[in-house]
Amino acid sequence: MQILETERLSLRVFELEDLDAFAAIEADPDVMKYFASGPRSRETAARAIAWYRTLQEQRGRSFWAVIHKADNCLIGLCGLIPQRVDDSDEIEVAYRLDKSYWGQGFAAEAATAVCKWGFDHLDVPRLISIIDPDNITSIRVAEKNGMSHVDQAEYDGKVCHIYAIARPQTQPPPWASLISPDHDIHDGTFYA
Ligand SMILES: CC(C)(COP(=O)(O)OP(=O)(O)OC[C@H]1O[C@@H](n2cnc3c(N)ncnc32)[C@H](O)[C@@H]1OP(=O)(O)O)[C@@H](O)C(=O)NCCC(=O)NCCS
After folding, report:
1. Which CATH class is domain 2-171?
2. Where are the chain's structural domains?
3. How many angstroms is it from 127 CA to the middle of ligand 1?
4. What's the rounded mean pLDDT across residues 116-125?
5. Is the CB of 145 under 6 A from ligand 1?
């Protein structure tokens, strides 16, 4: 199932057939340099795909497969995942790409589109990215995505930067269209 499309990329739900391409990315020590786990096994990659599919089914958002339209190759992942940061629930815009596609603006292109999708579809006041302070490339992607450094927090066993972008005022939350100015009298129903 396709989620969104940009000029050069298509983002879709992960399929079980993505395992070969995805496992190769997850096994690359350069891609996984800033993750406490380090490179991941094929089995872990398979479990991750299963989790991404479950998350999509249950929550309607997940990590999505990033497809490079020009050659139809899976070049990484980008998406929206739940995170707990300093006792508060957040949604993170996260990404990692096959090394051979780095430096061409693909991460920023995907992350920007995912961010817009997030504000269009989720009732969240902000989106964040959790970034190792040494990961200059990822910091640059967050900045190109309109985020700024707002905090730091313990994550994955180390102190990380929290980058965030607030919901743009031009992008009302998804439920806003349900509210009509005529309906200002509460009918007593409790919408738990
Ligand atoms: C982070 C990652 C997804 C970026 O992918 P990408 O497609 O190369 O990113 P982009 O091309 O959109 O943007 C990279 C930016 O970083 C800049 N950059 C790269 N290395 C840099 C460095 N050492 N110092 C300063 N800027 C640097 C690039 O110049 C570019 O900015 P610009 O467009 O203003 O010139 C990719 O490097 C990756 O998969 N890394 C491993 C996984 C990871 O760390 N994910 C993030 C976890 S928080």
Report:
1. alpha beta
2. 2-171
3. 19
4. 96
5. no
